[in-house]
Amino acid sequence: MSSRAHPVDGDLSPATDGGHIPMKSSPHRHKVGIPPKQNMCTDFMYTFKETFFHDDPLRDFKDQPKSKKFMLGLQSVFPVFDWGRNYNLKKFRGDLIAGLTIASLCIPQDIGYAKLANLDPKYGLYSSFVPPLVYACMGSSRDIAIGPVAVVSLLLGTLLRAEIDPNTNPDEYLRLAFTATFFAGITEAALGFFRLGFLIDFLSHAAVVGFMGGAAITIALQQLKGFLGIKKFTKKTDIIAVLESVFKAAHHGWNWQTILIGASFLTFLLTSKFIGKKSKKLFWVPAIAPLISVIISTFFVYLTRADKQGVQIVKHLDQGINPSSLHLIYFTGDNLAKGIRIGVVAGMVALTEAVAIGRTFAAMKDYQIDGNKEMVALGMMNVVGSMSSCYVATGSFSRSAVNFMAGCQTAVSNIIMSIVVLLTLLFLTPLFKYTPNAILAAIIINAVIPLIDIQAAILIFKVDKLDFIACIGAFFGVIFVSVEIGLLIAVSISFAKILLQVTRPRTAVLGNIPRTSVYRNIQQYPEATMVPGVLTIRVDSAIYFSNSNYVRERIQRWLHEEEEKVKAASLPRIQFLIIEMSPVTDIDTSGIHALEDLYKSLQKRDIQLILANPGPLVIGKLHLSHFADMLGQDNIYLTVADAVEACCPKLSEEV
């Protein structure tokens, strides 16, 4: 048979037929081992543990006295009791510098992000005071900086506005915001407590890249209102409605003083960011640039009284710390369901961003974070935050990057930031009265630009076209329809990809690498030769009810195609079909029925079915179902090489 490669579906799984060993006949072949039978309870407990407790969280508690177990339990819930014991002045010095640096960045950002959520600017500052304190006690990441973020603020504002108009019913809108924050926290904490953190992994990296990029553009477009000084602006977030609103106001609604302020300071912010990227030692330049911009622009507006010329300013900003808001949360009525729905969506997005950031910086510093504990910490800080006039807070990538570059050592940097925000709330808020909205717009535009990751999108396109569809679908969904539709598209395409991979697994035709006993995909290795009279196929997935019929039909199609080629080339007919089972990690009753149907079909055509290297779960189920007896123990081999070696004498006898 020709050694030319035939077209195949792909090669996803590594073959496991051994190393490059010269083929030689062996009088004794090893039989496929049958694992000892497990009772149902043991099997269920193993599966349950691997699903929910794969990290064995209680391993440190084994063989410990009660006092030690209590302390370990306390440290598990409040990691501050663990790292706090070894805290010293050197670490505090790094945390102090980092905390002051991220505080200078967060204060102007928080004021702007609150406006994205259609809330008074003070709520942005409130959300950078209480939540970071809670996280510092309960979180396990040393580098993540907590507070409001642009994407979650926009998402929350969009979802809330769809239910209640913040202009006509500001009080109800605020109550719904606190209710959504409360249930966002409940969602996050519940996912962590019940160890369901793996659910957030269903939102693929490609979908997140597209969603974040689209959200960044949407956020930047929303800032044109403040950047251009437009008073009447659309409430919609799609790009067409926003640009239409901008150009309609071009003749009479733009304010040249506002544009001058916004453009000047945006140029300054972008330049400072460029300087920070060029030299890592100057990381503090882009970090402190937003606060400098606010101070200079506020002073300029105050001196020139540009607000009298149409430049819009922040105006009054309440002084004082967070008031209690527990009594404002809806626990009954129609708005309760709305708050739950909005909270679940906002909480999931916030969680995805925070866990991704935490894992990124943990990998850079070579330490581990517990994803489930992180979720509990993030959830509790939002639950407490909702009771103290905060809206949804999470990990901020820009602030976390600055925190990392500034040399933070522990979560104390978040405490330092909270103290600075507290002092601002107590003494400095009146100074923001003349801060122009244009500078806040420039700060937000500058902050969201890094969310547009073009290089990541190009890489996704090169590596996986289906992933790119998820990326671009989420991107266009956000910018042309709405944030929630973009998110829905991202989740839908991610699930569709999972279903496609489960229901349509890859298969491959295998050939022998010359002068070895190794069998590999003939598309990947064109030099591999196919043994006359034998067709070897590998299935690269578990065989379940969702894909069993497809696997059977695909194998039969491979066989049909190969028989046509053999007939055209006047070569010996196919007499043996070998299925390489090593990538098949599991099989259910539907899968076994599919193998039985395939076996019966092949018997009618005088073709022998042979299985090679089924795993412990698979061979155990094949024996329990008696399919192994139907097939014959002599037709189950340890390797493809063993199977082919056994087939060759039979072929020569018939010839």
Automatic annotation (TrEMBL):
Gene Ontology molecular function, alphabetical: secondary active sulfate transmembrane transporter activity; symporter activity
Residues of the STAS domain: 524-647
Subcellular localization, as worded in the UniProt entry: Membrane
Region described as Disordered: spans on this chain: 1-33
NCBIfam families per the UniProt record, alphabetical: sulP
Identification of the protein by name: SLC26A/SulP transporter
Domain of life from the UniProt record: Eukaryota
Keyword set includes Transmembrane helix: yes
InterPro entries for this protein: S04_transporter_CS (IPR018045), SLC26A/SulP_dom (IPR011547), SLC26A/SulP_fam (IPR001902), STAS_dom (IPR002645)
Entry keyword Transport: yes
